[in-house]
Amino acid sequence: MSAKRPRPAIPVLVHVDNPTDAASVTVDTSTIERKMDTVINNQERIYDKIPTSSGGGGGSADLTTVNEKTTSMAETIGSANSAYTDNNLIGKIKNLALSVGEYGGVLSESATGLRSLLYNVRQSVGDSTKTPSATGTTVRDLLAAIKRNTESGDDLTTVNEKITAINTAVGDGAVLANDQSLIGLAKGIKASLGSMDA
């Protein structure tokens, strides 16, 4: 610190038995002065660490700046009871915790936190670490069941072929009586036997 403060006077009380001899009494104040030096040195070290109007390292300490910066920092961080809607660090962290979901918290398929939404997706699609079940209701379970129900076990081609074959065998309403489908043959029988209403 470049500008030293004046050393304060140290009042020392001395008891003498004879007040007339008080003028000749010598008092050793060196111990007190050493302790006072230590106090002053400690104060100066603290003083040097306080930001100053000139940027530190000398001059008068600008405690207003310290107070302003401390207040600004406290407002930026926020208090422990900040709401999740508050525009400070604690408020944003609380908002994030609500949005994502608390780690270790109970997962719910109906909750709106990110963890619960992902849990809902996993419950719907199925857990990739578990073998799908033919009786399950997840997407993986249903696809596994469809795969098992196809003749080849590899794809849906067989299912499509069988549906096409059934459609061809049954026919549709536009077929003629001589068509070799179920509906065509039924029309042929009706044409041969006549209508029940006739």
Largest sheet: none
**Structural class estimated from helices and strands:** mainly alpha
**How many helical stretches?**
7
Total DSSP E strands = 0
**Overall average residue pLDDT:** 78
- What's the alpha carbon Rg, rounded to whole Å? 47 Å
Distance between the termini: 125 Å
Segments where pLDDT lies below 50 for 5+ residues? none
Helix and strand element order? HHHHHHH
Q: How much of the residues is beta strand, in percent?
A: under 5%
* Helical residues, percent: 40-55%
Shape by Cα distribution: rod-shaped
Would you write up a description of this structure?
The chain is mainly α. Helices cover 48% and strands 0% of the residues. It has seven helices and no strands. It has helices at 30-49, 63-77, 89-100, 114-125, 139-149, 157-170, 182-193. The longest helix is centred in the first third of the chain and has 20 residues, at 30-49. It is rod-shaped and about 160 Å long. It starts with 29 loop residues before the first helix and ends in a 5-residue tail after the last helix. The mean pLDDT is 78.
